[in-house]
Every structure is written in structure tokens, then in C-alpha cells.
Design goal:
single chain; eight-stranded mixed sheet; 26 helices; 24 strands; transmembrane transporter activity; MacB_PCD; membrane; transmembrane; transmembrane helix
């Protein structure tokens, strides 16, 4: 009880200092709990949606893709005959059965030709309005579509794009364009995560989306009262008899589970990525907590010594410090759980701004979330305080007679330096091994080992590095400020262990920033270099949907365009002479002009020969694996088509990244084996301008596709900028998440300076008494902060660039051979670190400047 009272007294006596460490615990726990609440809320949202939209039993074509899988590349979904509806209705236990049409291969634009589809990755769904839709939606304005000129739209999309009844919408599908006016608006009964949904009457949906009437994509079956979904499924299968094998029959639960599985991978990636960044914040928070308790123990040396002198044992002193840490962990974790829920709500608002709608009505806080947050916060805080507590227990009673802090352990310091050097050397060896690896998979293991080992090594050896690096930084930056600068340098060097730990907290976040910057810049530079070397086409056209035949023809007829080249992906099973079959292999079917649009090196044969009748090319790696040579023949069984024997006419090099390992053949060869109605649409179209007419052709192509906002015309400059923007957006998102760790690190600098000011109260009073002005005092503390921040920045940026350069060596094995160091980013971060130091010193410097000189001198 005495230990607890002492701990409580000390905790509240230093509540201001504890608050900064508490913020680190709060932020770390909040990020973990916020991530769990956010991911659980998304899961709940999708679960409700899938349960509401799934019929009791659903009948679909056998070859229909599973939820989340890629559908047919023809632009038209798989369908079944309308006669299936009548057959299913005859099954026992069926209350009703209705045919439904659904397609996500559409683009819908308003009267201003603006795409009303979502921008956040959710689909645009078009179909017919059925009774099953009443499970999840209700018509809140107007009426359902009754004819070919009617369309109904969901309320979320209507609100977002200011649509109202009477407005005209144009739907672009593989079969062509058609227009209709809004006659109704339907509102979701559950949360719509962001999809745009439009409804037509059944005949229009069949004709325009499937290309034929009398067909449906699926049949929704409703069970009669008292009939379970499982029994209904059996009854439907029995009624269909032998023909049941031609269909997929699923209960509501099976359909919902399949849909849930289709989004689970996306949700898991987001969840674990965010938890990873939370882990980094926890790691940085550990340094802050260790520093806080180390300094508190040092400042209470006399107190601890007196406790020992009057009979307190080492265990009691140890427990006293750990009890303070426990109290800090409990308070910080409880607050962190609450802040985490608020953070989850903020993330939901952010995602809504990006196109994924999430409602706070579905906010899900599972019982495990606060438990995980509390356990992590408390355990991490107590573990971080263990070393300072152990050190406190070693304070002897004689320390009560001295003003010195905890005695330094020379042997421990030397051992620390040796361990740090060994770990750093081992990490460097691992990174070198990764850079010299012949295979990316093997090298990545050494890269991960090298990253972890060098990071730990730098943390351990931090105090040794601080003694050297701080002197170098001071010589460059502080000496010009005279005595004030020299005092700032000495203050930073006074306790290298403290400086090293504070700088290490900032080092971790900046190391990851530098590493990812190098990797991102190298990827962009490599891709840009590859484009310059390999792409001969002037323009690339691609978009959210595959390119329809009508658009292809219009592009081909565009003025100033010398030729266009279609690029289609075809799936097939390839059986090689060695008897092995590569199932579901992707073949690149293009027009013969592709050899002009993309320059590919070959190791055998010529690529133009691959565009002959019943010919193809294979990649060098595929040829080596199956011992193929030019002239060999392979059996190709095309999906949705016939099998044919094709001759290997060329073997392409594995150099470069564009179309690496691709197998080419002429579109006409594919047309020979695949029926026209099953022929895939083009994924992209390349275009070459007439000689000297690049600008005119560019403008003409844009004009041609003006009415098709789902497609984008890009010249090589545009394509490079798009690539750069995509990588930049990804990095900015990562930087934002790493920002939490950097904020915690800044708090560490603030905490270190604040406690350092308290520790040096008497010293500050004496300096003020002999003539040091308040302005000089504040400047000294700010300079000390800047030096510590720059020390952490130098270590972090140097370490991160080393990691990034090693990672690029592995990427070079995949064709990304250009190493580019983003010096503007690196220099910006380094200079920004100086401002971070200045910002972190504002409050401690202000408080130091306000000290009463006489009271400071009288401080024990």
C-alpha cells in the first residue's frame, strides 16, 4: 500500500511531464482501436448490404464468375434463358421467382457528359427493377421504370450529382449508347458503400445490357412460408434435374458469404497496413516513455536514495516506478480507446469524401477492441518503463548524499556500443547480400532482415553516434552563435543516451519516409526510361471500362491518325511438348502494328513472325521452363472457344518491365478459334499520328472521345505524369500514416527538453544570474532541440536511403533498373526536421525564460 501511495504521489506531482508520455500512449492506442473499429464498421456495412440484396435462393449460369472474380471480357455478363424462371417456379416451396439483369460493364453520364459513377473504386451497376430489390431499397420519389425511355437512380448518386426527376442520363454499354429520363429515385434501406445504381425496365435492360431479350443474368427465388433456404435449394435442384449441373444454385447465406469473401482481401490489406503503422507509432512511443521515466528517475535520485536509506528495498523502488507506469498506461489506454472511436468516425468521413460511403449508424465497437487497446497500451508502457525502474532499484543509499543523477555504468555503455556495432554490421551484410541476390524472392528475405537489424543496431548504438554526429552538426550550425551555440552543443552531449533515444524516435519515421521515397522515385524513373526506350506509339487510350467496337472504329477513322492497334487479353490453357499444361494463361492478342508501337527485343525469331497464321510468341522464361524453341508447336485451348495448334515463332527477352513475359499473337488468330460473341473487348488502344501531325492527332482523338468520359487519351508525357501521380498519391497516403509516428517523436523531443529544463533549473538560474538573457536562454534551448532533431533526421534519412537503394536492386531484377534518389524530398525533410526542432522547443524555451532567477538558484 505504501508503494502505491508513493507512486500515486509521484504520478500527480509530475502530471505535466506524464501528460506528454500519456499522449504517446493515447495516440498509439487510438490508432490501433480506430483501425479495428473502422475495419469492423466496414465489415458490418458490407454484411448488411449483402444480406439485404441476396435472394433466398439465387440461380445463375454455371460459367458466371464468383463474386470478386473477373467477369467475361466481352462487356456483357453471362446469362441464362428466361425459360429457367418458369422451370424454377414449379419447384416445391417456391413463393415466387423472377428473372434479373445486372451488369457492371457500363458508364452512365448526365446531360453535361459527366460520369456519375463513383470515383473511389465502387462499381456502377445497371439492371432491371425487381421485387427482390425491395429487400434493400424503396422508391422515395417518382416511380419505377415502365418503358425504354425511363430510368431510376439511387438517392445517394442523385444527391451527389444534383440529379432530379426529368433529368436525362446516357448509358454507355458494350452494345451501344442509349438515353433515358429519370422517372424515379430509390433510397437504400441499408448503407450503400458507394456504388452507383440505375434501373431500367426488364426488356430495355435485356436488350441494352445483354444484347438479347429473353435472357437474364440470374433468377431470384423467394421461399414460401416455413421453407428454409437450404430446403428450397434442394427443391430447385430436384426440379431442374440433370440440367441443374448447368447452373449455380446458392442460398442467401452462400451468396452473402461469397460477396463478403470478395471484399475481405481489400479490407484485410487496409486493416493490417494501418495496424502496421500503429505498431510503428507504438515503437516510437516506447522511446518517449523510456526517456520520460529515465529522466524522472535521474531527477529523483536523492529521493530514491533516501527511500533506500530508511529501509525501502530495491524491489519496492522498482515496483514504485512500475506502478507509475501502470497508472500512466491505464489512463492513457482508456483515453486512447475513446479517441480511437472518434478517429474511426473521422476515417469514415474521410472515406466518404473519397467515394466510399460509411454511416455512423453502422459504427461497430466489438468487445475485443477495448480489450486489445488496453492490453497493448498497458503492457507496452510497463515494458518501456522496466529499464528505468530497474535502474532506479540500483540507486544506493549513498546517492542521497550527492546531487548526481543515476550513476553511469561504464561497462554497460561499452557493452551497448559493441552490441550496436555488431548488429549494425550484421544488418549491413544482410543488405549487401540482398543487393547481390539473383532472385527477388530470396533477396527480399535478406532485405527484411537487414532493415530490422540495422534499425535495432542504430537504436542501440545511438548514444555513441550522438557523441560524434552532434559535434559535426554543431560545428556547422551552432558555432556561429558563439557561447550560446556552444552551450546548446554541450547540453545535447551531456547525456548521449538521452539524445540518442530522442533522436531514434524521430529516426524511425524518417527512415521509412526516405526508403519509400527512394523506391517510389526509382519506380517512376525506371518506368519513364522504359517508356522512352520501348514505346513507339504516340498515344495510349484506356479507361474505366474496356473499349467498345464502336469507339475503336471512331478512333481508327480519326483524322491525322496513321494507325491504331488494339490490345486484348485472352485466356487459354497452353499445353507444351513436355506434356505440361499452363492453365488460364494470359495471351496478348494485338494487331500486327503492335511491333511498331512497342519495341520488344527477341532472343530467337522475330516478333513480326508471331503475327502470322496460327503463330505466337512466348517469353524467354516460359521458353526455358518448357524447353521451347522457335518452330515448336503448342496446344492452345482458348476459353469459350476451340483448341488449336500454334507455332512458336519468336521468343521475347525478359529485359525491361513493359509486357514482361507476355505471349503475343494476332487478333485474327484468336478470331479463328473464338466465336465473335465471346471475343474479348480491347483493354487499350495504341495510336500513331501521321508524320508531323502529333498535335493535330492528339486534339482530334480527344474530340473523338469527348462523349466517352470513361476513356482517357494520353500521349507519352501524359502517361508519365499519370504514373508519377499514382505513385505520389500512394506515397502521400503512407506519409500521412507515418505522420502519427513523427508526431509522437516530436512529443518525445518536447518531453526531453521539458524534463531537461526542470533537471537544469538551478543551472539555468545561475546562468541567468551571471548575465544570460532570457532571449539567449530560449535560443540555447531551441538550438539544442534543433540539433537533436537534425541528429535523428540524419540517421533516419541515411538509413532509409540505404534501405531504398537495396530495395531498388531487387526491383532491378524485375526490370526496374534506374536508381533515383529524390534529393528535393530528402533535403525538404531534413530542413523540415530543423523546423520540427524549433517547434518542439517553443513551450520548454518559453517556460525556461519565465523562471524566477532567485527561485531557480534556490532549487534543490
Amino acid at each position: 500500500m505504501t508503494v502505491l501511495k508513493t507512486s500515486m504521489r509521484n504520478f500527480f506531482a509530475h502530471k505535466g511531464r506524464m501528460a506528454l508520455s500519456g499522449i504517446a500512449v493515447v495516440l498509439s492506442v487510438a490508432f490501433v482501436c480506430g483501425t479495428l473499429v473502422f475495419s469492423d464498421t466496414m465489415t458490418t456495412t458490407f454484411d448488411k448490404l449483402f444480406a439485404a440484396t441476396s435472394a433466398d435462393v439465387t440461380l445463375s449460369p454455371k460459367n458466371a464468375p464468383e463474386a470478386g472474380d473477373e467477369g467475361p471480357r466481352t462487356g456483357r455478363p453471362e446469362s441464362l434463358p428466361a425459360s429457367a424462371v418458369a422451370r424454377v417456379e414449379k419447384a416445391d416451396g417456391v413463393k415466387s421467382a423472377e428473372g434479373a439483369v445486372t451488369s457492371d460493364s457500363v458508364t452512365v453520364v448526365d446531360a453535361d457528359n459527366d460520369n456519375i459513377g463513383p470515383s473511389g473504386g465502387a462499381p456502377t451497376l445497371a439492371g432491371n427493377w425487381t421485387k427482390n430489390d425491395l429487400r434493400s431499397m424503396e422508391i422515395t420519389s417518382g416511380h419505377a421504370p415502365r418503358g425504354p425511355t425511363d430510368v431510376m437512380v439511387d438517392a445517394d448518386t442523385a444527391d451527389k450529382h444534383d440529379l432530379k426527376i426529368g433529368d436525362e442520363l446516357r448509358t454507355i454499354a458494350a452494345t451501344g449508347d442509349f438515353t433515358a429520363r429519370i422517372t424515379g429515385i430509390a433510397t437504400f434501406k441499408v448503407t450503400n458503400p458507394g456504388a452507383t445504381v440505375v434501373y431500367f425496365d426488364t426488356t430495355t435492360a435485356q436488350r441494352e445490357l445483354l444484347g438479347a431479350t429473353g435472357r437474364f443474368t440470374h433468377v431470384s427465388v423467394t421461399a414460401a412460408s416455413g421453407v428454409s433456404d437450404t430446403q428450397l435449394k434442394k427443391n430447385v435442384a430436384a426440379t431442374l434435374g440433370a440440367d441443374a449441373a448447368e447452373f449455380k444454385i446458392k442460398t442467401q447465406k452462400e451468396t452473402a458469404d461469397d460477396n463478403r469473401e470478395s471484399v475481405s482481401s481489400f479490407l484485410d490489406v487496409m486493416k493490417y497496413a494501418m495496424l502496421g503503422f500503429a505498431g510503428i507509432a507504438f515503437l516510437v512511443g516506447i522511446f518517449l516513455i523510456i526517456n520520460t521515466f529515465s529522466m524522472l528517475v535521474a531527477q529523483r535520485t536523492r529521493e530514491i536514495g533516501l527511500m533506500r536509506a530508511i529501509g525501502s528495498s530495491r524491489k519496492q523502488v522498482n515496483r514504485s516506478v512500475l506502478a507509475e507506469a501502470l497508472l500512466l498506461g491505464v489512463v492513457g489506454s482508456v483515453v486512447g480507446v475513446g479517441v480511437g472511436v472518434g478517429l474511426a468516425v473521422g476515417l469514415m468521413k474521410l472515406m466518404s469524401g473519397m467515394g466510399m460511403e460509411l454511416s455512423t449508424k453502422d459504427l461497430t465497437v466489438s468487445a475485443t477492441t477495448p480489450v486489445v487497446g488496453l492490453l497493448l497500451g498497458i503492457v507496452v508502457t510497463v515494458l518501456a518503463a522496466y529499464l528505468p525502474a530497474r535502474r532506479a532499484g540500483k540507486v544506493s543509499p549513498m546517492a542521497a548524499l550527492r546531487d548526481a543523477g543515476t550513476p553511469a555504468d561504464g561497462k554497460a555503455g561499452a557493452l551497448r556500443a559493441v552490441i550496436g556495432l555488431v548488429l549494425t554490421a550484421a544488418g549491413v551484410v544482410a543488405l549487401y547480400t540482398a543487393a547481390e541476390a539473383d532472385k527477388a524472392k530470396e533477396g527480399s528475405l535478406y532485405l527484411g532482415l537487414g532493415v530490422v537489424t540495422t534499425l535495432v543496431g542504430f537504436v542501440v548504438i545511438g548514444p555513441v553516434l550522438a557523441s560524434f554526429v552532434v559535434r559535426v552538426i554543431s560545428a556547422v550550425l551552432l558555432r556561429m552563435f558563439g557561447p550560446v551555440g556552444r552551450m546548446a552543443e554541450r547540453n545535447a552531449l551531456r547525456n548521449p543516451r538521452r539524445t540518442g533515444a530522442t533522436g531514434a524516435a524521430l529516426m524511425i519515421g524518417l527512415a521509412l519516409v526516405a526508403c519509400l521515397s527512394v523506391v517510389g522515385s526509382s519506380m517512376v524513373a525506371s518506368a519513364t526510361d522504359e517508356l522512352d526506350k520501348s514505346v513507339g506509339a504516340d498515344f495510349i487510350v484506356q479507361g474505366e471500362q474496356q473499349i467498345t467496337h464502336q469507339v475503336e472504329q471512331r478512333m481508327k477513322d480519326t483524322r491525322h491518325v496513321a494507325h491504331t492497334t488494339r490490345y486484348k487479353e485472352v485466356r487459354a490453357d497452353i499445353t507444351t511438348p513436355d506434356g505440361k499444361t499452363d492453365k488460364g494463361a494470359g495471351l496478348s492478342a494485338t494487331d500486327p502494328t503492335y511491333v511498331k508501337d512497342l519495341r520488344r527485343e527477341t532472343t530467337a525469331g522475330t516478333l513480326s513472325a508471331a503475327y502470322g497464321t496460327d503463330a505466337m510468341s512466348v517469353g524467354e522464361k516460359f521458353a526455358e521452363e518448357h524447353r521451347l524453341k522457335v518452330g515448336d508447336k503448342v496446344e492452345v485451348a482458348f476459353d469459350d472457344g476451340r483448341s488449336g495448334e500454334l507455332k512458336v515463332a519468336a521468343i521475347t527477352s525478359e529485359e525491361g518491365t513493359l509486357d514482361r513475359g507476355a505471349m503475343y499473337l494476332n487478333i485474327k488468330t484468336v478470331e479463328k478459334y473464338v466465336p465473335a460473341e465471346r471475343m474479348p473487348l480491347s483493354d487499350m488502344v495504341f495510336a500513331k499520328a501521321a508524320e508531323g501531325k502529333q498535335d493535330e492527332a492528339y486534339a482530334a482523338l480527344k474530340a473523338t472521345l469527348k462523349t466517352d468520359p470513361q476513356y482517357k487519351v494520353q500521349d507519352q508525357t501524359d502517361f508519365k505524369e499519370t504514373l508519377k501521380d499514382q505513385v505520389g498519391q500512394m506515397l502521400n497516403m503512407v506519409y500521412g500514416l507515418l505522420g502519427l509516428a513523427i508526431i509522437v517523436a516530436i512529443l518525445g523531443v518536447v518531453n526531453t527538453l521539458a524534463l531537461s529544463v526542470v533537471e537544469r533549473t538551478r543551472e539555468i538560474g545561475l546562468m541567468r544570474a551571471i548575465g544570460l538573457s532570457r532571449r539567449q536562454l530560449r535560443r540555447m534551448i531551441r538550438m539544442e532541440s534543433v540539433v537533436i532533431a537534425l541528429f535523428g533526421a540524419l540517421l533516419g534519412l541515411g538509413l532509409g536511403m540505404g534501405w531504398g537503394a537495396t530495395a531498388q536492386k531487387l526491383l532491378a531484377l524485375e526490370g526496374l533498373k534506374v536508381l533515383e534518389i529524390p534529393w528535393p524530398t530528402i533535403l525538404t525533410v531534413f530542413i523540415g526536421s530543423a523546423f520540427v526542432g524549433l517547434f518542439a522547443a517553443l513551450v520548454p524555451a518559453f517556460r525556461a525564460g519565465r523562471m524566477n532567477v532567485l527561485n531557480a538558484i534556490a532549487t534543490e
